[in-house]
UniProtKB/TrEMBL annotation:
Protein name: RNA-metabolising metallo-beta-lactamase
Domain Metallo-beta-lactamase per the UniProt entry, residue ranges: 13-232
UniProtKB keywords: Hydrolase
One Pfam family here: Beta-Casp
GO molecular function: hydrolase activity; RNA endonuclease activity
Superkingdom of the source species: Bacteria
Domain Beta-Casp: 237-358
Keyword rRNA processing: no
Taxonomic placement: Bacteria, Bacillati, Bacillota, Clostridia, Thermoanaerobacterales
């Protein structure tokens, strides 16, 4: 056995370790250095001189472990690359972003886009826990194990006839907000390579650090300041988003959070890999919910938004974490001059990064608190604080893992020299293992005289099926596993595919397993699956429903394009099929029998949208109006369920057109042209029994109306002079809603008589004021809303989501007050 250290030894960055076993060269990671002042690539000459690369195994997606993969893969295209599914998705995002940065900064690129694509095409993905053989002519076996740290991160275990090697990669044993901690069984390695990033420290209590962060941010916000949190786009940023969201939902923190830089794209990849997340987040994604963004956590979609964002008191979360690039540089430069603001550092800072300089100047005198960003010197007047939210193992966790594995030889890498030396001494106090602290360029010949015996995992029995695995025959697979293997065994996608037989695509299999009642993900390792017990299956079958994708396909068969169905979805846990029709009232009446039949066949309940699809109105009008008629303007009166169309031209058979429009949309059609106004329709105007010849002066009339309503609980928000279709003028009063205005019909009639003016009630609705009233009513009861209420004008409903359950009596009391004040009622989502 031979170990060659091409990068990542006595440093953090450019991790690249070549292991020679049984004549095969296996490369563990191939990253870059993040510092701009050093050669950012590993020593490839060393690899070349020792026979090149036969296979590459990637621990996780961070660029200090993957940034040079396109180069080494271009040099050795025959070498397959092995990683987890999530790591491949994340590596794609990070490498393509690196290409953009090199192009933007006019650097000579170290690789091209086709090199990234070719490298990714050579990548083979395996589930953690599954053992694979990278070479057909060798006894070498490889298993990936969950390493915590970030989404998809894995430790690597290689066994061979010459001995076994364990490579920790970057790992963390504790459970984070997004992912579970490392899960590494009691393996028997002869050689182990451990990361040492925080090998001289014991981390602060994670919950206490999160609390301290929220308390500090809250104090800054309460004083009108702004907070910039430079964060690594991958891993740290997602953790902080969830920490901030939790505080906002609990009402502890009241602010907007803006997410900028590559963080947005990484969040998308997290949501595409729910089986690598914690169970609570995976379940939300399975239901179709967003785990990161909402009304309070907002993605910065365009650079132009930034100038507006920094005008308000808020929190900004942006890459890069070391302030070496990305929008975080811009935000720090803009916000550093104000003493009310805060820069919150939450992760590792390279020795030469602006982030490290910020930490170094925390205790310096005000005039010396300066850093350089892009050769520009910036005076730092704002507060600086550091929070221990690291996703790396500390000294205690590294020592615990070393004690658990107890390898014969230990190599400490991925750390600053003084930290590694300190950790090495601590390891020697605990273990009798030989401890090595390699430097870049070192080569070690390792002779394992008596390799440790490995526990051989017996292959599972196979059904040897040649047909595709589907929802129809998955019960046979479940029955076989229950009888031959048992329900306690957690199985990987690859193992389940092998148990079935041939021709199973693991990506399709994942979707199948996530949507069947016969299997369930392991609670802590969601990428592994258990067959459910027979008792669990019986309980599930009581409410057995059609598989999700099968049900959605059947929707298309039942309701074709002519039905006006434009969108479909589901609330998986509740087994509700969400159908969105252009005109839901029409669909409800027209397809009532089909809805019943569909529900009986699938076991899913149908829920229709409550609002019409306004964009569909134009296509209906174009279809039913004569070709010679020009449509100039279309107005939709949602509360009245009317559509006013301003036209140029004449419609001879107006009643026929209106009837046809109503039958297709359920809406009343009003036609107006420049000469005649609205045809066959007049504005409802309240008038006294008077000919209105002797009208009061306009301002005097409006003053009298104001005086009358000043004594009443409902105020008038706006008074206007309008012209009716016959050319006569009238006063229009705008209340919070038309329903409220109609409560005062008798009073308005008296005011009409007193002033000599016809008076109408506006159809408009003050949505902003209604939302404020809803918020206040809930706050009075000590109930927090998770997001802003949503108003549905068609049904006079305000939909809300509360952060905690609400008693029925309390909701009824709120609804009674809200209806009195606005004419609306609350509906819980």
């Amino acid at each position: 056995m031979k170990a060659i250290f091409s990068g990542g030894a006595n440093e953090v960055g450019a991790s690249c370790y070549l292991i020679n076993l049984e004549g095969k060269n296996i490369l563990l990671d191939c990253g870059i250095r993040m510092s701009s002042t050093k050669d950012n690539l590993p020593d490839f000459r060393l690899i070349q001189e020792h026979g090149g690369v036969d296979a590459i195994i990637v621990s996780h997606a961070h660029l200090d472990h993957t940034g040079a993969l396109p180069i080494i893969s271009r040099m050795y295209p025959q070498a397959k690359i092995y990683m987890t599914h999530a790591t491949k998705d994340l590596t794609r995002v990070l490498l393509y972003d690196s290409l953009k940065i090199m192009e933007r900064e006019s650097e000579i690129p170290i690789y091209a886009e086709n090199h990234v694509k070719d490298m990714l095409d050579r990548a083979l993905c395996y589930t953690p826990g599954y053992t694979f053989t990278p070479f057909p002519d060798s006894q070498i076996k490889v298993t990936l194990y969950p390493a915590g740290h970030i989404l998809g991160a894995a430790s690597v275990y290689i066994t061979s006839e010459e001995g076994s090697v364990f490579y920790s990669g970057d790992f963390s044993g504790f459970r984070q907000n997004t992912i579970e901690g490392a899960f590494i069984p009691k393996l028997r390695p002869d050689v182990a390579i451990f990361e040492s990033t925080y090998g001289d420290k014991l981390h602060a209590n994670r919950e206490l650090e999160e609390t301290r962060l929220i308390e500090k941010v809250s104090s800054i916000i309460n004083e009108g300041g702004k907070v910039i949190i430079p964060a690594f786009a991958l891993g740290r940023a997602q953790e902080i988003i969830l920490i901030l969201k939790k505080a906002i939902n609990k009402g502890i923190l009241k602010t907007k959070v803006y997410v900028d830089g590559m963080v947005r794209e990484v969040c998308r990849v997290y949501k595409l890999n729910p089986n690598y997340l914690r169970q609570n987040l995976a379940k939300k994604i399975f239901k179709g919910n967003d785990i990161f963004f909402d009304d309070n956590v907002i993605a910065v979609e365009k650079p132009e938004m930034r100038e507006e964002i920094i005008k308000e008191s808020c929190v900004i979360l942006s890459s890069s974490g070391m302030i070496t690039g990305g929008p975080s540089q811009w935000y720090v430069e803009k916000l550093a001059q104000d003493e009310k603001n805060l820069i919150a550092i939450t992760g590792y800072q390279d020795e030469e990064s602006p982030g490290r300089r910020l930490l170094d100047i925390m205790e310096e005198s005000p005039e010396n608190r300066k850093i350089k960003i892009d050769d520009k010197e910036i005076l730092i007047k704002c507060s600086i604080d550091k929070f221990g939210l690291s996703a790396h193992a500390d000294m205690g966790e590294i020592l615990a893992l070393a004690n658990s594995l107890y390898p014969k030889k230990i190599f400490l890498v991925h750390g600053d020299p003084e930290i590694i030396n300190f950790l090495g001494k601590e390891v020697q106090k605990d273990l009798k293992s030989e401890v090595y602290i390699p430097s870049n360029g070192d080569i070690y010949e390792i002779d394992i005289k008596n390799p440790r015996k490995q526990i051989e995992k017996q292959p599972y029995p196979s059904m040897n099926q040649n047909c595709a695995l589907t929802q129809e025959n998955i019960k046979d697979l479940w029955q076989f596993i229950v009888e031959k293997i048992g329900v306690k065994q957690a199985l990987s996608l690859e193992e389940i595919a092998q148990i079935w037989g041939k021709g199973v695509n693991t990506e399709n299999l994942k979707e199948l397993l996530n949507n069947t009642i016969y299997f369930e993900p392991d609670k802590k390792r969601m990428f592994l699956y258990h067959a459910v017990t027979e008792d669990e299956l019986k309980n599930l079958q009581k409410d057995e429903v059609m598989e999700l994708n099968q049900m959605l396909s059947l929707v298309d068969e039942y309701f074709g394009p002519e039905s006006g169905l434009y969108k479909k979805g589901a609330r998986f846990e509740e087994k509700i099929a969400l159908l969105y029709f252009n005109f839901p009232d029409v669909a409800r009446e027209k397809y009532s029998e089909k809805f019943k039949e569909f529900e009986e066949k699938t076991g899913w309940k149908i829920e229709l949208n409550k609002n019409i699809n306004i964009s569909a109105i134009n296509s209906i009008l174009s279809k039913i109006l004569p070709k010679e008629v020009l449509i100039k303007k279309v107005s939709y009166m949602n509360m009245e369920k009317k559509v006013i169309v301003k036209i140029e031209g004449k419609i001879n058979d107006l009643d026929l057109v209106k009837d046809k429009f109503y039958s297709e949309t359920g809406l009343t059609l009003l036609i107006a042209n420049d000469k005649e106004g609205i045809q066959n329709e007049k504005k409802e105007i309240i008038m006294a029994n008077s000919d209105f010849e002797d009208r009061m002066e306009q301002n005097k009339a409006l003053k009298i109306i104001d005086e009358e309503f000043s004594k009443l609980p409902h105020k008038i928000y706006k008074k206007s002079i309008k012209t009716s279709s016959d050319g006569s003028k009238y006063i229009e009063l705008s209340f919070i809603s038309k329903v409220v205005g109609e409560k005062y019909t008798e009073l308005i009639k008296k005011l009409s008589e007193k002033t000599g003016w016809p008076i109408g009630i506006s159809d408009s609705c003050n949505q902003f004021e209604i939302i404020n009233i809803v918020k206040n009513l809930f706050e009075e009861k000590g109930i927090l809303l998770k997001k802003n209420p949503s108003i549905y004008m068609d049904n006079m409903i305000v939909k809300i989501i509360t952060s905690s359950p609400i008693e029925k009596e309390t909701l009824e009391e709120i609804n009674e007050k809200l209806y009195y004040l606005t004419g609306f009622k609350v509906e819980m989502l």
